[in-house]
Each structure stands twice: as C-alpha cells, then as structure tokens.
Write a structure and sequence with these properties.
alpha+beta, Aminopeptidase, Glutaredoxin, seven-stranded mixed beta sheet, four-stranded mixed beta sheet
Length: 263
C-alpha cells in the first residue's frame, strides 16, 4: 500500500464515492479551487497495482466551512475506502498520514468526527474506531463526537461552534431551510434532492430558502455547515437524504401545523 499527497493531478482520479454515486463537475471544481487556494489538503491510498482505494481530506480549521472551532488545527472532513479493501487498515494509514502531514506542516494538531455505530453515513469513521486509535475524545453533538490529537500542551480542545440559526416562522407557508455548504458531494446531492422533493410535492404552501454556507464566515454566522430545517426544526443533519424522506418530513410538519390550527 502506498500513500501519496493529494494534488491537482490526482484529485479527480483519486477521490470517489464508495456507493458508486457519480460526482458532479461542481463538486470537483469546488475542491480544485480549495486545493489551489490552500484551503484543502489530502492523502490518497493506492494498492500495489496503483489503483486509488482510499482518501482523506482535511482543512486548516480557520478556513474550513465546518461547525468546529479551534486554533491552528487541521480538520478531517472526509475519509473513504473502497468496500473491496481492508477498511480498517487503509483508514488507519490515511489518518496516520494526515496526522504526520499536520505535524510537519506546523499545525497545532488535527481533529476528526466519529459517529455512533448505529448512524453509518457513507462509510464515515465511527467513534469506536477513533477510540481504538488512541485519539482523545472531545465534545459530542447529536450522534457525532470530536476526536483529536494535539502536538503541544498549550493547544486548546476543539469545540463545536454554537448554534446561531433561528429560522423565522412563516404563518402562511411551511418553510424549508437548506444549509448548502458544497463541501461534500453528499451536501450537493442533498440540496438537489430537497428541491426536487418540494417540486414533486406540487404544494404551493412550501417555501424553500437556500443558505450558502461554503465559507467559514457563513458557518460561524449560522453555527451549521450542513443540514435541512423543516418548519424551523433541524430534521436532517449529516448524511444523504432521499426525496421520500423530505416529502415525509413535509407531510409530518404540515400535519402538526394543522393540528395546532385546529386547536
């Protein structure tokens, strides 16, 4: 197994969706812009035949459009390994390579999110895996927990940013707010899925508001990089959504509104 640094030359060939979803040109273009602008770093794992079998993406936390704060850290945003390979071994190599790169680049440390076992999202790394690697366990939010390594004692523990988003109520229409980070192909697909679901519902009583959260400043302002709010409630946070999920959430919210009105 060989690990190589992410570059403009290998980005399109080295990054992939393990579920077989076709990446959009927009997503590749966004990552290339961030890589070229110094906002993005990464490592690619190749097998003995030279095939890309896994990758890790990470960002200087001060530039990363993610809802996590910390000084001088790198933030791991995505780790993926092809199902046909030893996920544990490849993931461990990728995380170790990211830690080594963060250290050699002068970062204060590196932080990643681990998910509860019962909340798998596109093969996202679990909290148990990061625990077993010996990373320090930090703050939790929902079904995600921060795990980190710091390279000096003065570095403060990373924390989730406070939630600042309070969507205004709409008495006449049910409001759906989409946090459109475009950091991840899942988020890009979610935006399109929600818009299509609302269109298919053919309801004139639904208002969709898309918030561009692809900058650090926007994420700090909202306290969220991704997520879908239905009638003011955070309904989808991490992970892919389906049209059926969205349409069902709209039906539930509309029913709740009707019951409240009938009272």
């Amino acid at each position: 197994m060989k690990i190589e640094q992410l570059s403009m030359d290998n980005l399109r060939e080295g990054l992939f969706c393990p579920a077989g979803t076709q990446f959009s040109h927009e997503w590749h273009g966004q990552l290339e812009a961030w890589l070229d602008g110094g906002k993005l770093k990464g490592q690619i794992a190749r097998d003995d035949d030279g095939e890309a079998v896994g990758f890790v993406l990470y960002y200087p936390i001060e530039k990363a459009p993610m809802e996590i704060g910390g000084d001088g850290l790198y933030m791991v945003q995505c780790i993926q390994v092809k199902p046909s390979h030893d996920k544990g071994a490849v993931t461990k190599m990728l995380i170790e390579s990211a830690i080594a790169d963060a250290r050699s680049s002068g970062a204060a440390g590196i932080v990643a999110e681990g998910l509860r076992e019962e909340e798998p999202i596109h093969g996202h790394v679990t909290a148990t895996f990061l625990d077993n690697m010996g990373l320090t366990r930090g703050e939790s939010r929902g079904f995600s927990t921060l795990y980190y390594v710091v390279f000096n004692e003065e570095t403060e523990e990373p924390k989730y940013l406070p939630s600042r988003f309070d969507p205004p109520s709409n008495e006449t229409k049910l409001r759906v707010d989409i946090m459109d980070c475009r950091l991840c192909y899942v988020g890009i697909h979610n935006r399109e899925t929600v818009l299509q679901a609302v269109q298919r519902s053919k309801s004139e009583d639904v208002e969709v508001v898309v918030h561009n959260t692809s900058t650090r400043e926007a994420v700090i302002d909202k306290g969220f990089s991704s997520g879908v709010f239905v009638d003011g409630k955070l309904t989808f946070f991490r992970g892919p959504v389906t049209e059926a999920d969205v349409m069902n959430a709209i039906r539930v919210a509309n029913s709740a509104r009707k019951r409240a009105t009938d009272r």
